[in-house]
Cystinosin
Amino acid sequence: MMAIFSVTTVCFVAFLVRGCTGTGLPSLTFSKTDIQLAVDSTKQLTLTPQSHIIEDATILFMYESGKDTSYKEKHNLIVPVPNVIIHGNTTKGVKVNITAVTAGHLTLRVNSSSPEIENLEKCFVRITLVHDKALVIINAVIGWIYFVAWSISFYPQVISNWKRKSVVGLNFDFLAYNLTGFLAYGFFNVGMFWVDGVKKEYADAHPRGINPVQLNDVIFTIHAVFVTIITIFQCTVYERGGQKISKAYMNFKRKSTEGWSIGNVILDFTGGSFSLLQMFLLAYNSDDWGSIFGDPTKFGLGFFSILFDILFIIQHYVLYRGRTPYYTIIPDTTEYIEKPVNTPVATG
Ligand SMILES: *[C@@H]1O[C@H](CO)[C@@H](O)[C@H](O)[C@H]1NC(C)=O
Ligand SMILES: *[C@@H]1O[C@H](CO)[C@@H](O)[C@H](O)[C@H]1NC(C)=O
Ligand SMILES: *[C@@H]1O[C@H](CO)[C@@H](O)[C@H](O)[C@H]1NC(C)=O
C-alpha cells in the first residue's frame, strides 16, 4: 500500500518537474493545428519561425498516416506540398497551400536539415478531409437531435416514479444493465473524445479512419449515467414491486402494452434512427465505413433501440391493441404474481 503510494508520488513529481522545465518550444508553428477541408478545396496556412534563425533553412513536409510517416504522400489524400524556405534574420512566416484530393485524414509534419531548427516533432497540422462541409454541420445537428430525443426519453419514468412515490412496474435488472452499460460506454466515449492516448491508439489502429465519437455522445452517456443513478436512488426510497422480467416479455405475458407510453417509444425510435443516420453520414463523409464498426456500442444502441421499438409498436398496435392486461402486478410482493384480471377484453 505504502509502496504503491510512493511510486505514484514519485511519478507525479517527475511529471510536474518535466512539465515545469519543459522540453523546449517548437521553433516553427503552423497557423492552425487542426483543419477541416472539403475535397477539391484549398486552404492556406502560414508556417512561422518562433525566433530568428541565422541561415536560410529548407523545410520538407512529411505525411503521417497512422504509424507511418513518410516524405511521400502515399494515400493521395492531399496534393503534395512543395518544400518551402524559412529565411534567416526574419520571423516572417511562409504560406503553405493544402489542397484536398479525397476524403480521409492525415497529419502534416515538417523536417529540416538545419541545425538551428529544433523540436520539429511539435510542429504539425492535423488535416481532416471530407466530401461535404455542410454534412459536418448536418451531422452535428443530427447528433444533438438524438441526444435530446434519447435524453428526454429517460424522464417520463423518473417523473412517474416520483409522482407515484413508487417504482412498481420498473424492471430492476434492466436498471442494473443500464448502469453497467452506460458506465462502460461512457468510459469508451470519454476516452475516445478527451484522452489523447486513447485517441492516438485508435488512430494508429485505423490510420485512415475518423473518430466515430462525437461530443453529443459523450454528453449523452454522462447524462444517462446520472439519470440511471437517480432512478436507482428512487428504487431505494420508493415502494417496490418484485417482478424481474423484461418489459417485452411482460407485455407478452400480460397480452397488453397498457401503461406504457408510445411517446417514449417514438423518442427512443427517433434517437436510434438519427444515431444510425449520423454514423452512416460520418462514414460517407470521411470515406471511412470502418468507423461504423469502430464504435460497435453506438451502432448496437441505435440498431437494437430501433428493433425493440418496432417490437413494442407491433405489440401495441397489432397484437395487443386496446387490451387490458390478463395479469396485473401486485405491489408489496417479492414475486411477479400472475393474477388474472376480472375479465380480459379480447377484441382489438
Ligand atoms: C543574418 O545575419 C547574420 C549576422 O548579422 C549574417 O551573418 C547572416 O548571413 C544573415 N543571414 C541571412 C540569411 O541573411
Ligand atoms: C496558394 O494558393 C493561392 C491561391 O489560392 C495562390 O495565389 C498562391 O500562389 C499559392 N501559394 C503557393 C505557395 O502555392
Ligand atoms: C529529419 O531530417 C534529419 C536530417 O536530414 C534526419 O536525420 C531525421 O531523421 C529526419 N527526421 C525524420 C522524423 O524523418
Residues 241 and 332 are 6 Å apart (CA to CA). Residues 133-164 form the longest helix (32 residues). Residues 1-23, 330-348 have pLDDT under 50 and may be disordered.
